[in-house]
Amino acid sequence: MSRENLMPELHPLDIATSLILTGDDTYRGQTTKTYANVIGPYGGITAACLMQAVLIDRRLAGTPVSLTVNLLAAVADGEFDITVKLARSGKYIQHWSVELVQNGRICSNASVITALREAGFDHQSVDAPAIGPHTDFDRSTGVFPLPWLNAYDIRFVEGAPAFASALCTSKLSTRSVQYVSDNPPRPLDYLSLTAIADSFLLRIFNVRAKSTPMGSVSITTHFTGAPEDIAAQGIEPVLGVVDGIRFHGNFHDQNMQIWGRGGKLLATGSQLVWFKN
Amino acid sequence: MSRENLMPELHPLDIATSLILTGDDTYRGQTTKTYANVIGPYGGITAACLMQAVLIDRRLAGTPVSLTVNLLAAVADGEFDITVKLARSGKYIQHWSVELVQNGRICSNASVITALREAGFDHQSVDAPAIGPHTDFDRSTGVFPLPWLNAYDIRFVEGAPAFASALCTSKLSTRSVQYVSDNPPRPLDYLSLTAIADSFLLRIFNVRAKSTPMGSVSITTHFTGAPEDIAAQGIEPVLGVVDGIRFHGNFHDQNMQIWGRGGKLLATGSQLVWFKN
Question: Which residue among A21, A243, B61, B198 is buried most deeply as judged by most CB within 10 Å?
Answer without folding.
Answer: B198
